[in-house]
Design brief:
The chain is an alpha/beta fold. It has 3 domains: about 40-75, no CATH class; about 80-205, Nitrogenase molybdenum iron protein domain (Rossmann fold); about 250-425, Rossmann fold (3-Layer(aba) Sandwich). The protein has helices spanning about 5-10, 45-55, 60-65, 105-110, 125-130, 140-145, 170-175, 190-195, 210-225, 225-250, 285-290, 310-315, 335-340, 350-355, 370-385, 395-405, 410-415, 420-425; strands spanning about 20-25, 40, 80, 90, 100, 120, 160-165, 180-185, 200-205, 260, 280, 295, 305, 320-325, 355-360. Helix 9 runs antiparallel to helix 10, helix 10 packs parallel to helix 15 and helix 15 packs antiparallel against helix 16. The chain starts with a helix and ends with a helix. About 40% of the residues are buried. Pfam families: Peripla_BP_2. It comes from Methanococcoides methylutens. This is Iron ABC transporter substrate-binding protein. InterPro entries: ABC_Transporter_SBP, ABC_transptr_periplasmic_BD.
Length: about 425
């Protein structure tokens, strides 16, 4: 799956703790390692649970003298949360060591101020889904990369990678002794991770609706005891949505142009038979477009993967077309806008004949990044309703988005050097 040296490069040394037989009088009655007869005997109860609670030098009983330390952070009781799959996940000690398996959850850990607690993550968090790289895999926004410091002063991509999209290294996860694993909602493997790694696993993730993003922020803020920070982040996102919606909600339906959204770009033309996606792949629900004051022509389509024939796009006669730009190389890859404008079959579409075909930000990255949803919402609003949003400064707003989510300024400005369309409508 990946080199063992990469996996083990960032593993912190963990000293094993040998737990002796203890009198239950020193233990809270709801400690699950108490077998009920007044004696704590590790090999008679769940090994995974006892390992999670006791076998960690960060919480050495030699230091605190009493196992009830584990429960002191929540008034002497375990803490439970309900995750995105309605699973009740219980914690018996505070979260100090975090593993994420997808960029959306990594991004939220960073936004809530806990990057220094991450001990491993997935390949995409490290390779450019949080901060971009160019076509040669070189870091864009190098100052930002240097600002995202993990334990030991390393950078984000120095974290061990314990999973890819298709594979997961449970053994290395267990060696790292996390207090929690944040897994992507769509994998639905929380119970399996808990069984194999021996720690709580929270299924969490963002979506293309801001209501889903608010739930994501709140859930992770609760798990990480960062409720105040989560409330502030949600308030910021709501303020940006309200800023756009306060204008577009006043428009009549007839004033909202119809839009075809090609979120997968058009590098392979109409359709990529291998990936099953390209210009003819769209989204029936993309709330940033709706809030921006556009009418999604695919809104009545059903299913998660909406692929339509080119003839359907022509029949819809969209007033505007947005084609996502996935390249972050200044040299660029095949431009989706060029493909649309130069394809004879599309020449009679109003969007093409009126030159209303625009690039937009690629909305995915092994998930649905909140920063990209916010940026596309503002960018699309400015494209669709230039007069109403003539005073909207995309560069200033974009830099603020990344300052709020990553704690770093100037990221949007650097990205715009590699994706020049970001400057063309400012």
């Amino acid at each position: 799956m990946m080199s063992r040296s990469k996996l083990l490069a960032g593993i912190l040394m963990v000293t094993c703790l040998i737990v002796s037989v203890m009198n239950a009088a020193a233990l809270p009655s709801n400690l699950p390692c108490d077998n009920g007869d007044g004696i704590l005997i590790e090999d008679e109860v769940s090994g995974a649970v006892c390992d999670y609670m006791l076998d960690d030098s960060s919480y050495s009983l030699d230091d605190v003298g009493d196992a009830s330390y584990i429960l002191t952070f929540w008034n002497g009781s375990p803490k439970s949360v309900t995750d995105s799959h309605d699973r009740e996940v219980t914690f018996y000690r505070p979260v100090e060591r975090i593993i994420t398996t997808n960029p959306d959850n990594s991004r939220m850990v960073i936004a809530l101020g806990n990057l220094d607690k991450m001990v491993s993550t997935d390949e995409c968090t490290c390779s450019g889904c949080i901060l971009p790289r160019d076509g040669n895999d070189e870091k864009i926004a190098k100052n930002a990369w240097e600002s995202l410091q993990i334990y030991g002063g390393g950078q984000l991509d120095d974290l061990p990678e314990t999973n890819t999209r298709k594979e997961i290294d449970y053994e290395t996860m267990a060696i790292l002794k996390p207090d929690v694993v944040f897994d992507a909602t769509w994998y639905n493997r929380g119970d399996l991770i808990e069984e194999k790694v021996g720690c709580p696993c929270v299924d969490a993730g963002a979506g293309f609706t801001f209501a889903e993003s608010y739930e994501h922020i709140s859930l992770m803020g609760n798990v990480l005891d960062r409720q105040e920070k989560a409330v502030g982040l949600e308030a910021y996102v709501r303020s940006k949505v309200d800023m756009i919606e306060s204008v577009t909600s006043q428009l009549e339906d007839s004033e909202k142009p119809t839009v075809y959204f090609a979120p997968r770009g058009a590098k392979k033309g109409f359709y990529d038979s291998v990936e099953g996606r390209d210009f003819t792949r769209t989204e029936a629900v993309y709330e940033p477009l709706d809030i921006a004051g556009g009418t999604n022509v695919a809104r009545d389509c059903t299913g998660e993967n909406v692929n339509v024939p080119p003839e359907q796009i022509v029949a819809w006669e969209p007033d505007y077309i947005f084609v996502s730009w996935s390249s972050t190389s200044a040299l660029g890859e095949p431009n989706g806008v060029d493909f649309v404008m130069e394809t004879a079959e599309l020449s009679e579409i109003p969007a093409v004949s009126n030159n209303n075909v625009y690039s937009c930000i690629y909305p995915y990255c092994r998930g649905r990044p909140l920063d990209r949803s916010l940026l596309n919402m503002m960018y699309m609003a400015k494209c669709l309703h230039p007069e109403e949003f003539r005073d909207l400064d995309l560069e200033a707003e974009g830099n603020e988005v990344y300052r709020q989510i990553l704690g770093i300024d100037g990221v949007y400005t650097e990205m715009a050097e590699y994706q020049p369309f970001l400057k063309e409508v400012n």
